[in-house]
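We modelled the chain as a single entity of 104 amino acids. Its sequence is:
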Amino acid sequence: MSSTPSNQAEYKYLSTDKLRFDPGNPRFFGTQKDQKKTQPELYQVLINDFGALGLVDSLLANGFVPYEPLVVRNEGAHYSVLEGNRRLAAVRYILEHSDEYREK
């Protein structure tokens, strides 16, 4: 039985509760001050300042496109999202507002 070496990519499905926004991502949270934000604060920054809500309609219409996965790094009990923070915020928004999107 072989296992995937730690330096090779592996594709697998993860629950959103195991994923964490990356406070060190220079695209969104590059400042020292931002690196101290909590996960809920980072979520609000993505929703309010970085257009994550603009992805909601696309996700509802097309689903999560498997050829554009989130890129994550295993950090023990959770995974830090290196690429795809806005998509994760949009997915969490949909899950938090599921009554609003039940028909879709």
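As a brief sanity check on the tokenised model: DSSP finds four helices and three strands in the chain. The mean pLDDT is 84.
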